[in-house]
Amino acid sequence: MSRQRILVVDDEKLVCWTLEKLLTEEGYHVKTAGTGEEAREIFNTFAPKMVLLDIRLPDANGIDLLEEFKERDEDLVVVMITAYADADSAVKALRLGADDYIGKPFNLDTIKHVVEKTLEKKRLRDEVNYLRREFKRKYDFDNLVGNSLAMIQVFKMIKVCAETDAPTVLILGESGTGKELVARSIHFHSPRKDAPFMEINCAAIPENLLENELFGHEKGAFTDASKAHKGIFAAAEGGTVFLDEIGDMPLSMQAKILKVIDNKRYRRLGGVRDIEANVRIIAATNQNLPELVNEGKFRGDLFFRLNVMTIHLPPLRERKEDIPALVRYFIKRFNEEYGMNVKDVSKEALDCFMKYDWPGNVRELRNTVERAMMFEQGEYLSISHLSPEIKRFAEDISPSPQTEEPVATKTLTRVDQGEKHSPQGPRKRDESAGMKYTFLLPEEGISLEDVERQLIEQALDRFDWNQTKAASCLGLTRDTLRYRMKKFGLLGKKATSP
Ligand SMILES: Nc1ncnc2c1ncn2[C@@H]1O[C@H](COP(=O)(O)OP(=O)(O)OP(=O)(O)O)[C@@H](O)[C@H]1O
Ligand SMILES: [Mg+2]
């Protein structure tokens, strides 16, 4: 690692000499100047990380030099060297951006300590700023992709929520629709953006620990509490608390959250007084809150308090027009992340993406693109590495009898029933049907939903309602099967018929 450069500016030769020797021994690269003029000259070529600057110089005032140097390099670390009589100037210097000051006469340990501490503080500050910038970049509007009407509405709501600094925001949507991304976007576009965004997943933390996590505890609040502990509300002071999966929050905690919203105060475990909370609460859930209220699992008063600024994120299947932009966004992102060079998505793959229902929403789409890119050998994202559930839509377009496993239904007539190993069979039987069809569409038409429902019920019946086996028989994942069962009201229902 290159040595950090320090410029010492002092008209007392002995001070310069002593500091140069000391700091060089400590591993810094040091230069010294006895006048303002000399200091300016060295500053220009040496580009120091830190300046130790005497306030009184023969040809200049250290305070003016401080301003000059800071103007040229706002990241410069400056420590003023001052006589005790100069306390006023030291305060002025601190106001003008000096990082610290050392009084004369000084002892060498103090110098060492101040230089080290100030540089470390600066390094940490730089790191935090860098991370903040990165974080902001990551959760900027640009990272929320979508051009459907529904998403444009969402963007508008994000803007309103960010600008109005409403005390609570509720984000609703199925899993993987982008609730967390929206919550971060609101925070990073709000006046609270420079304060922390603290999130907690209410479903992931056991009930007895949740209160401690949120509100903290006083020393001695319980047997193991040897020290006081700040909770998330204290850590987020001035910023945002994101209560994820609020539908899973225990009723007892819901009452406490309601109190925080109403009174802007909370109490630590074992505490005797209330603490003020200046935070905005953003809550999210994929559950149906009114239903939970009806079932007595969610407090109606909290729901009404939360349900003021509400953002609904529609499932991806209801805004399929967002898919092309999302796919291209993910390709670009993974190209950058993994140093790849996939040019675009192939038409065939995009067709499949547009037809598939995406029960796992944008998260599933992201994972699908990521996985396919990992295995992709060509320039375009092909269908080769898509899951069978997604790929089967491509087979709809150009079917291959070898891979297409036909299924029988009560309502559909299978063209090649009993003859699937005889390629000539179906062709001879029904030329008019066109040999590419495995099933014949009845003259009078058919309800596809009905067919889907019947097939699902049959598969479930066949495997005694074992969802994993039924899903596998239908070429679906269990999640997709469950999603479809929910759609048809089959979840939690077991067929009585054999
Ligand atoms: N509109 C979008 N644009 C770009 N990426 C998105 C979008 N929506 C979601 N994503 C991405 O999809 C993934 C899932 O999003 P996120 O975690 O915000 O969903 P969620 O609704 O909070 O899901 P869950 O309910 O499971 O917690 C993330 O990687 C996120 O970056
Ligand atoms: Mg989430």
Characteristics:
single chain; 498 residues; alpha/beta; Rossmann fold; Helicase, Ruva Protein, domain 3; 4 domains; elongated; binds adenosine-5'-triphosphate; binds magnesium ion
Describe this structure in words.
The structure is a single chain. The chain is α/β, with parallel strands linked by helices and 498 residues long. The chain folds into 4 domains: 5-134, 3-Layer(aba) Sandwich (Rossmann fold); 149-217 and 230-314, 3-Layer(aba) Sandwich (Rossmann fold); 316-398, Helicase, Ruva Protein, domain 3; 448-487, Arc Repressor Mutant, subunit A, CATH 1.10.10. The chain has 20 helices and 18 strands. It has helices spanning 13-25, 36-46, 62-72, 87-95, 108-138, 149-164, 179-188, 207-215, 232-235, 251-263, 289-294, 300-306, 323-338, 347-355, 361-375, 388-397, 424-429, 448-462, 467-474, 478-487; strands at 5-9, 29-33, 50-54, 77-83, 100-104, 168-173, 197-201, 216-217, 229-230, 240-244, 265-266, 275-276, 280-285, 310-313, 344-345, 380-381, 413-414, 439-440. The strands form 6 sheets. A 5-stranded parallel sheet has the order 2-1-3-4-5, sandwiched between helices. The protein has a 5-stranded parallel sheet with strand order 7-10-13-6-14. Helix 4 (87-95) links the parallel strand 4 and strand 5 (100-104). It is elongated and about 105 Å long. The model is unreliable at 397-436 (pLDDT under 50). The structure holds adenosine-5'-triphosphate and magnesium ion (MG). Residues 179-180, 244 line the site of magnesium ion.
